Amino acid sequence: MTCPVSLSCPPRSSARCVVRRRRPQLRSLRASGVALLPAVLAARLPDADAAHQKLVPGTGRNTRCAGSTFASRQGSARLGSWTAEMSVSGSETDSVASRRSKKPKYSKFTQQELPACKPLLTPGIVIGAFSLIGIVFVPIGLASLSASQDIVELIDRYDAECVSANDKVGFIQDTKTDKACTRKITVPKPMKGPIHIYYQLENFYQNHRRYVKSRNDKQLRMKESASLITNCEPEATSQDGAPIVPCGLIAWSLFNDTYSFSLNKKAIEVNKKNIAWDSDKSTKFGSDVFPSNFQKGGLIGGAKLNEKLPLSQQEDLIVWMRTAALPTFRKLYGRIETDIMASDEITVVIQNNYNTYSFGGTKALVLSTTSWIGGRNNFIGVAYVAMGGICLLLAMGFVVLYVLKPRTLGDPSYLSWNKENPDNPN
């Protein structure tokens, strides 16, 4: 009596053969599929010999063990059902394993197989790169400096001149005191319109976290959210409990100094249209949201708003609500569209209402022309010139080194281990 190769006949056993169950054999069995199953099936089915011959035609091998005869039709039926069961369970196992796999989808980007170019840093390439950067940056910097120097900018600090020296805070808080102040500014150079009017504040920290958060953007944008006053304390509701629109400390502290100009005893009109960003007017402030209960408490923080105009048209408020990042900042007040000649004298009547004295701040009026780089700003030009000059100096230094101490590209004698053992270049 003989058994299949993978079967063993236990002593004193006349019923069936036992499969040697080993994990490596099971793995190979799962990998090879039904073709390698006859030996295992022979141990489980009553008719292992017929099953084996059916799975492996032409073998004609006698697989009886312990004098048992396996020749029943039931064995063939069980063979087919068990084979189908094994193949279904194997496919299910493979599909579950594929679903549970965390292997990322293959792509050249994730596998870092995209085509790349790494330049060989020869002396010529290094010198050429530094020279090109210097040649490009220096002219840009000089042009920026020239444009910045052509801008005419007049700054007049008026907070110390337009208030009583004895009691500055009391002077500002007294509502019955006339706070008009007249200032005269002489123009040193011709100023071509439009001339931008700014107010400049110092030591005013609009970037303070509690100050920045003291607003409700939904209330500013949608009429249905007029009652939303989240984060607006202490300027959330009026004395009678009604919600304030717009609420919060930013709107409450709106700048309220005013300026009126005259040139050669003729009044100059100030254009206050389009001083705010179009994106702010269209997306952040609603055209159907109107001010209500604003600046009606016991303590007035700043300017009042026209309750007949929607917030999207209150451009002074929109400009003020875009908070500054630094404690010294300028905000656009308006524009003078006419040209002003050199030596002309501008008379400015200032209503000094805004209280910067309680926190040690300063106020100034700024008149400025513009150019293709905006207002006066020497930093951009200086940065370009400095960077371009450094690159040109580096290029010249590499040229000198290349001429005086040239180095052969790819010379193995420059390797560290060859420098340590000069007699053994290998």
Automatic annotation (TrEMBL):
Residues passing through the membrane, by range: 120-145, 382-404
InterPro entries: CDC50/LEM3_fam
Listed GO CC annotations: endoplasmic reticulum; Golgi apparatus; plasma membrane
UniProt-listed Pfam families: CDC50 (PF03381)
Main location: membrane
Keyword Transmembrane helix belongs to the record: yes
Keyword Transmembrane helix: yes
Keywords: Membrane, Transmembrane, Transmembrane helix
Subcellular location: Membrane
Family: Belongs to the CDC50/LEM3 family.
Protein name per Swiss-Prot or TrEMBL: ALA-interacting subunit 1-like
Species assigned in the record: Panicum miliaceum
